[in-house]
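Comment thread on ticket #2218

A.B. wrote:
> Attaching the input chain for the structure job we discussed in standup.
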Amino acid sequence: MSTAAVLLSPCGVDCRLLADGCAVPQDCTTSGCSPGQVEDAILERLRPLQQCLGVKTVTAFQGALDAEGWDRLRRGFPAILVVYAGSPAFVTSGKRLEERMEFEVYVMDKSYRAKGTGQQFGRPEAEGGHPGTYALLSAVRARLLGVAPLAQMGPCLPLSVNGFTQDNASVYRLRLSTTQHIIL
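C.D. wrote:
> Ran it. Output below, let me know if you need it in another format.
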């Protein structure tokens, strides 16, 4: 048996018990759940919003958008994008390593504010199929906060919310974190 770090995988498998030559489950690696696996789990928690709120786009986001990418995304509004924002903290405690992973969830829809006045014009329902970013943000919070994205991980906890408008689009970014433990 190896003396390398041992992970309790999301499915509860102790990686030390895997025999040589045995296929390693995708969720069992020596470094814990990958950011991609957690990102996928977050996306799965958000996909029901396509049905109940009419969200057209629920996908991973890999960086800044150019003008063409922004235009293409706007055609897919309302939209929810998820991006791995990093793991700023690794804390050791005895024979355990705790990794805090941070993710950003962007909710985007048409802006219902009159330019420069901050006044809301029209009701989001009048647009048909566009619930507005407040409703999207509320639904995302309800689906994610306090819920572990994968077994053996801590619950998603809020870090901050920031918003802005761009080209008649309203965008809010919810930054959240979750933790995983790796046995050393």
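A.B. wrote:
> Thanks. Noting for the ticket: The longest helix spans residues 35-46.
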